[in-house]
Amino acid sequence: MSSDNHDGGDSNLPDLGDAIDIVTFSQILEMDDSEDDREFSQSIVFGFFEQAEETFEKMDEALEAKNLDELSKLGHFLKGSSATLGLTKVKDSCEKIQRYGKKENEDGTPETDEELCLSRVTETMKSLRTEYSEAETTLRKFFNTPAV
Amino acid sequence: MPEGDMAVAQGSSNNSSDFVRKLYKMLEDPNYSEVVRWGDGGDSFVVLENEKFTKTILPKHFKHSNFASFVRQLNKYDFHKVRQSEENGQSPYGKEAWEFKHPAFRADAKNNLDNIRRKAPAPRKNQATEDQFSSNTQIAALSETLAATQQQVQALQDSYFEMAHANKVFVDEIMHLQKMIKAQNSVNNELVDHLGKIDHERRHARATSNHSSQFNGNNIMSDGTEEPPAELRRAREILNSVSGDHIPEKDLRQMSIQFQQIGASPDSASSSSMMGPPGSAGMQNNYIHDPMNDLRHMVYPVGQTIGIDPFAAEHMGNIPYNRPLSQNNMGPGPVPEPGPAAMPTASPPVGAPGAQSTSPWGQKKPRVLLVEDDKICSRIGSKFLAQYDCGVEVARDGLEAVNKINTNPSWFDLIFMDIVMPHLDGVSATAMIREVSPRVPIIAMTSNINQQDLEMYFHWGMRDVLAKPFTKEGMIGKLKKHLPSFLRNPHRSRFVGSDCKIRDNASAIAINKHFLAFSGAASACFAQHGAGSGGYLTAGSGGPMAMTPGGTQRPQQYAGGMIPAMSGQQMGRMPDDGPPEKRQRLYGPGPQGPYA
């Protein structure tokens, strides 16, 4: 596996592409008993998959109901776990949804146009799903191949 | 009475008392001279015949016949009884005479009557000045009490309506149950009848089959008939008529959900999102049997389970909801408990003594409570802590955390507290924990690091902030910083250790007296917190998250240089735990504060 790593000098870190912040993610990997036994990190990651799918469903429902408040909360919720795992892009999109749901622009200034907020959330959710499945593919691949 | 007062009063006085005028008028009547008259000098008056005076003159002029009351009245107007002089041993007017005197009450000075006024009661006069002195604080205290009371009334009202509703549901349910029981009874009767019949038939069949085999056909027919006996059919009909989805049952279920969510108040009904957080099915079960369930008095917007953001506009002014009430209840202040850091009473939760060679901790390992609603984060966090040889417990929201602390206030040595959580947010939970456990370090875990938020965290008793997403280094850094006395080798973080002693004292004082003043260095110290966490954040995730623009740039700048710089000035560290009221005021204009 390539050990190209722009974040730091640790050449033992696996390359998981730019969907995943390797420094953050490797902290989870360090919690595993060994590099051959990824039980902990794998259960965490797969738990996150479940959580993300559930949250997406709820986001869809909330979007349908035009419930911005709920969308903001869901965005905040998924932001926490995605950030902790180092899924930077997913986290960024969640944060945007949180903001738009709060009727704010991306820079935090208030936005009164609810329809605009909703359409922004809709757009962001599209990219969120793309980013998520990209990260999911990478991670599933990572756990299926023995870590070197 | 001071003359000055009278002189002042004179100008505005047409309100001299009737009593004095009546008195003067009475003395003008020469018919009474045997009973009551002016004294010989004209500067006093004398009641010569006490009994006659009481019976005839008092009723006529004062509409009563009570001499004692008359004397009391005189005293009120500052008349004095003239004592009989010692030398003579006798009054010039006779033994029974009562002579009264007032400097302004003279036979030749009718105009002066206005100067005779009722004395102001002396004690009340004092009070009045005191009142003036402290009226402002009293008004403040009163309005606080009023606000608290109003809140309480509101809460009581809410819970009254809930209970009234519950009562109705219970009555409905009882009625239904009674109906069921009645139905069951008749079903039982039918069954007994039926069994009796069968029994009878069987005996009959047995008896007859002995005599003749041609009855067998009949017998088989009665046994194998497809048609159920009438009694059983009736029983089934009765049961069918009472079962099924009836309304009270639904209401009861609804109520039990409400109970689990700790009394959804009318306010929270508006936030109608009842969705559970992903992956947290069944997490509400914990509250059903919990005595802390009765947190209903908080008027807190519960019922939304995704997470309560204390900074959301609808909560912002109210966080934490129960605070005014509990502040009043605090009375003389929390009993100082032995600090968790200072007294290793309980046994370590994890780690055998043999493990000490690798453990960073000394004799006692710290017990850490991790309050986090996100399963992923709490699993990772507790793993980090467990690997660092801490005892870890997890609470999935603020309410669970408060319950744990209430069960044993001094059990945990440190608390990591998420902010946005269902049921009870981290800020409100901290405020509640502070009532029973004023000293345990509570560290906010949050991605919202802006000035306003930080103010709130510290205001309600949080001691530090750990930026989210948290890292192992970040968590361990906070542990070392706040639990230096637990370290096996405290030398490594010496300055932090000495700092902590100051901090503990400071916080004890701060919590007992909420208004201790602190030095302006608060801002610098405060800034260091933010910077520290920001630093972890940046290192950990490669990019800052949800932080204010100001907060993200500076950390790198300060993370290295600032901590040593701070260690030299003790005062700079004190406000770490000082009353947040002061801190928030101070850190704004602080010269070094990156958030300023």
From TrEMBL, chain A:
This chain's protein is named Hpt domain-containing protein
Top-level taxon of the source organism: Eukaryota
* SMART domains linked to this entry: HPT (SM00073)
**Per UniProt, what is one Pfam family of this protein?**
Hpt
InterPro entries recorded for this chain? Answer: AHP1-5/YPD1, HPT_dom_sf, Sig_transdc_His_kin_Hpt_dom
Describe the location of the HPt domain by residue ranges: 37-142
Where is the PTM Phosphohistidine found along the chain?
Answer: 76
Q: Which UniProt keywords apply?
A: Phosphoprotein
UniProtKB/TrEMBL annotation, chain B:
Provide ranges: composition bias, Polar residues.
207-222
Does Phosphoprotein appear among the keywords?
yes
Please report the stretch or stretches of sequence annotated as the Response regulatory domain: 367-483
Q: Give the location in the cell.
A: Nucleus
Keywords from the named record = DNA-binding, Nucleus, Phosphoprotein, Transcription, Transcription regulation, Two-component regulatory system
User: In which domain of life is the source organism classified?
Assistant: Eukaryota
UniProt xrefs under Pfam families: HSF_DNA-bind, Response_reg
Q: Where are the residues of the annotated region Disordered? A: 207-226, 326-362, 566-596
Return the protein name: Transcription factor
Q: Tell me which residues bear 4-aspartylphosphate.
A: 418
Record keyword Endoplasmic reticulum present:
no
Q: Could you tell me where the Pro residues compositional bias lies? A: 333-351
